[in-house]
Amino acid sequence: MPVNLQPPIADQLLAVEGVRLGTAEAAIRKLNRRDLTLIELAEGSRAAGVFTQNRFCAAPVQVCKSHLATTSPRALVINTGVANAGTGEQGVANAKASCRAVAKELGIAAEAVLPFSTGVILEHLPVDKLVAGLPAAKAALKADGWYEACHGIMTTDTLPKCASRQVSIGRHTVTFTGMSKGAGMIRPNMATMLGYLATDAKIAQPLLDKLVREAADLSFNSITVDGDTSTNDSFILIATGQVGAEIDDEASREFQIVRGEVIALAQWLAQAIVRDGEGATKLMSIAVEGGKDRDECRQIAYAVAHSPLVKTAFFASDPNLGRILAAIGYAGVNDLDVNKLRVWLAADGEEVLVAEQGGRAVSYVEEAGARIMKNAEITIRIDLARGGAEATVWTCDFSYDYVKINADYRS
Amino acid sequence: MPVNLQPPIADQLLAVEGVRLGTAEAAIRKLNRRDLTLIELAEGSRAAGVFTQNRFCAAPVQVCKSHLATTSPRALVINTGVANAGTGEQGVANAKASCRAVAKELGIAAEAVLPFSTGVILEHLPVDKLVAGLPAAKAALKADGWYEACHGIMTTDTLPKCASRQVSIGRHTVTFTGMSKGAGMIRPNMATMLGYLATDAKIAQPLLDKLVREAADLSFNSITVDGDTSTNDSFILIATGQVGAEIDDEASREFQIVRGEVIALAQWLAQAIVRDGEGATKLMSIAVEGGKDRDECRQIAYAVAHSPLVKTAFFASDPNLGRILAAIGYAGVNDLDVNKLRVWLAADGEEVLVAEQGGRAVSYVEEAGARIMKNAEITIRIDLARGGAEATVWTCDFSYDYVKINADYRS
């Protein structure tokens, strides 16, 4: 059961001027499944992306990076069922062939097409099936196609993830709509976290390039379900430029508004993945502050977030402080003074100091911890008391169902 | 159920000249439980240790390090029930008080006593109970007390872990006996991996200091159950010096024999912990070769060993190559050429090439992988093909029982 995550309501998803989306059943791996999504972008659109750091980088990711570096994109093509990863040169050829087919269908250059795949790895993409499905996806293209598209990119997600925001910039109403998929950082064979966020604002390419990195850092790169990183992870930020004047000054109020909206929406989309994490029953925020730099804050937050012992304790609603302290201690920050740091548990408006001076806080009573642990959304706040840097990481707990899902996955 | 691990047979555990062991029920945390172990060493004994890297280093570990640096040890005192970790200055005072009490009982200096604790953390050690138990432990001291002692240091291990080896060096018969405890790298509250290895050989202190590090590196520091590191982990190598002439030349045949025996026994003791890992159904060896250096081999081996996706696949006996390749890919070796590496699965004398050239091996058939995965002990061999370094890490799979044990632990 996803943690406080509802399916999107079609009427509440807002069209982004310059973006049309269509889906089709292409039988990539299974019949009767919406497994092909086409996104068409108006001329003049700009995009920027961040991709997996995995050395087994999938073929579509390689092609996507190369195309993004070549020209402005006019279309995205996304298939589920087969990830086209661990497929060598044939995989790259297949990804390029898919782009050529989309280009021909839409009358654009092949380099203006960005390919994405998610599904089983080590299997070749059936390009012929994908190509055969394109006319139906093209025929389905529409401005309010986000609802269908967010279903079209799902694999084993239990819920589609899509949301919109709207904001006034001067006399213009600017829209932001995004969708994501993924239920583990890697969904074993049906791999991959995918995130797409489009706005009709006109944003200069250098700002867009910078913003996609910052937003990814604060959202998709700050979540973890199981510490595994997919071969296909991609996050694409699109600005179609259909509304308002070009935003090209990083210090401008306009850009700060756009920046805030993009980060907030990216965080919503990223957290939705954690809420729908494999077997998740709780959303945990690990907020580390008072660090020397952001890196050490992230290092400690991730050590806590990845600890199977912490995650199983949260599943059991057990305020097991020892496991949290031990994870902080082995995070690898070697000059950390554990006698100075403090740890709080917080939920539902209540915050309790649980650890200080190298041990349990004098004021702490187990009942307070137990009360907090009953909530579905819990924050672990850690003050390192040695600087001004901070970082937050989101994760979910570790349940029987996680093992069940991953042990049964291929059977 | 431990993986291919049998309880020790009392008759097969060999006394080490100069070592006497005794246990008692001290009611440290629970009644009617053998929770106090005393080890007395003959005068002239030498010891060397390696300890947890966790910043929340437990009080006994701090005292132990300090005493080892001060004088040669004459006694070890080990309690279960309370780990005396996360206990601040009072914890250190309690550990020192325990040493003083042992010293008084045995007529030795307090600095010649090494204290060890394992059990719940964030709770203070009841020194009075420990002290009250000492006369009984002293009265029970005997040369063939290893069998009782390996039971005495257990917490939630399902089996005690103790073994002996004997070898001829010149005209002398040298004995090595060791014991260990631990069922996760951290056993949540009942924390800690402890390992003790004693020989009656006479080994010069510099060689002993070096050997304890090498042996730990190749054994206790090459295992993982869940990636968590305890606050109390300790491994102590003791040479009582009762048999033969002093071994002080690293290049000598004598030292090479001792070295081989110590490493082999330490590996047996370390692997016993993995075999008895929480919920373990399989022992996995991840052997990485062809690396530029040992560090990158370990980095990749640990990435595979820590991946919950790989571990759940092994639990399911599923030869899920994609998960192994993905873990290699995200291990953080940034210039790794995934098209050059090869991966094999091996068990029971059979070895199958499963991946090469960035994907599934052409010769690989799923039936062969499935056959290997049915075994209880499986090796994943990875050739990075870029150098001569190698490293092996041992771990176990990830089962429903792991979650059950850790979610239920405190209830």
From TrEMBL, chains A, B:
The protein's Enzyme Commission number: 2.3.1.35, 2.3.1.1
Pfam families: ArgJ
Site positions (Involved in the stabilization of negative charge on the oxyanion by the formation of the oxyanion hole): T118, G119
Pathway given in the UniProt record: Amino-acid biosynthesis; L-arginine biosynthesis; L-ornithine and N-acetyl-L-glutamate from L-glutamate and N(2)-acetyl-L-ornithine (cyclic): step 1/1; Amino-acid biosynthesis; L-arginine biosynthesis; N(2)-acetyl-L-ornithine from L-glutamate: step 1/4
Top-level class of the enzyme under EC nomenclature: transferase
UniProt keywords, alphabetically: Acyltransferase, Amino-acid biosynthesis, Arginine biosynthesis, Autocatalytic cleavage, Cytoplasm, Multifunctional enzyme, Transferase
GO terms assigned for molecular function: L-glutamate N-acetyltransferase activity, acting on acetyl-L-ornithine as donor
Site (Cleavage): A191, T192
Residues the record marks as active site: T192
Catalytic activity: L-glutamate + acetyl-CoA = N-acetyl-L-glutamate + CoA + H(+); N(2)-acetyl-L-ornithine + L-glutamate = N-acetyl-L-glutamate + L-ornithine
Compartments, record wording: Cytoplasm
Residues binding substrate, per UniProt: T155, K181, T192, E278, N406, S411
This protein's record includes keyword Acyltransferase: yes
Primary location group: cytoplasm
Record note on quaternary structure: Heterotetramer of two alpha and two beta chains.
Function in brief: Catalyzes two activities which are involved in the cyclic version of arginine biosynthesis: the synthesis of N-acetylglutamate from glutamate and acetyl-CoA as the acetyl donor, and of ornithine by transacetylation between N(2)-acetylornithine and glutamate.
Family from the record: Belongs to the ArgJ family.
Protein name (record): Arginine biosynthesis bifunctional protein ArgJ
Organism of provenance: Uliginosibacterium silvisoli
Species lineage: Bacteria, Pseudomonadati, Pseudomonadota, Betaproteobacteria, Rhodocyclales
